[in-house]
User: Which sequence fits this backbone?
């Protein structure tokens, strides 16, 4: 039994999966309020299915990239639940979710793209289904010259056609929009869990620096 959830965007999404069967799925659009909505949504979903947290074998959580606050909400909830239950928490990136929802078995080289802020895109290269480089933020209409993809590769996801057109390799575009986060997230986390390996605690995937400027006020002094 796995519980998977994601709050990396303007939504609160969660799924319960046992083996290959999806027991319950929720996806509620919301621009804010995920911190207040996530745990009641999970509790209601599990109660409806007659389940308790003790039934869970692992927790899957979306680690982004995405909204800074939203990422912290889901990741902190997953780490807290995993610690309390004594089960692993497994992080899954948005790039893995995009691939898992549209072409999980693709063997060709891929550049997976997700929407970024202000018309940009987040991209990460994959080979044989595994990430082979760090994610980066680009202008889809003007990909940087050092963004390479072998001939015959494909660009999958957000603004795929524009990115493929701008690459010198003549990559094949596969436009796709990520509408379902939690179900592919759960399947990927389940596949990772089945390997039996140990996992580091999930952490938010930040591709760019925060927009907010640090406070100019001096930090408070902690008294002995």
Assistant:
């Amino acid at each position: 039994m796995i519980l998977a959830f994601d709050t990396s965007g303007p939504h609160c999404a969660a799924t319960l999966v046992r083996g290959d069967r999806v027991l319950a799925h929720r996806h509620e659009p919301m621009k804010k309020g995920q911190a207040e909505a996530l745990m009641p949504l999970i509790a209601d979903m599990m109660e409806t299915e007659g389940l308790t947290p003790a039934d869970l074998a692992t927790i899957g959580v979306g680690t982004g990239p995405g909204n800074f606050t939203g990422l912290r909400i889901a990741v902190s909830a997953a780490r807290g639940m995993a610690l309390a239950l004594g089960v692993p928490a497994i992080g899954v990136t948005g790039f893995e979710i995009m691939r898992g929802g549209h072409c999980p078995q693709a063997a060709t080289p891929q550049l997976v793209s997700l929407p970024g802020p202000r018309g940009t895109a987040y991209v990460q290269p994959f080979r044989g289904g595994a990430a082979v480089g760090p994610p980066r933020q680009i202008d889809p209409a003007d990909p940087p010259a050092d963004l390479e993809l072998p001939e015959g590769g494909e660009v999958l996801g957000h603004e795929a056609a524009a990115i493929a057109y701008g690459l010198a390799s003549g990559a094949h575009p596969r436009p796709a929009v990520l509408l379902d986060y939690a179900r592919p997230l759960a399947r990927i986390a389940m596949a990772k869990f089945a390997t039996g390996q140990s996992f580091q605690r999930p952490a938010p995937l930040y591709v760019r620096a925060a927009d907010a400027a640090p406070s100019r006020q001096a930090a408070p002094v902690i008294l002995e």
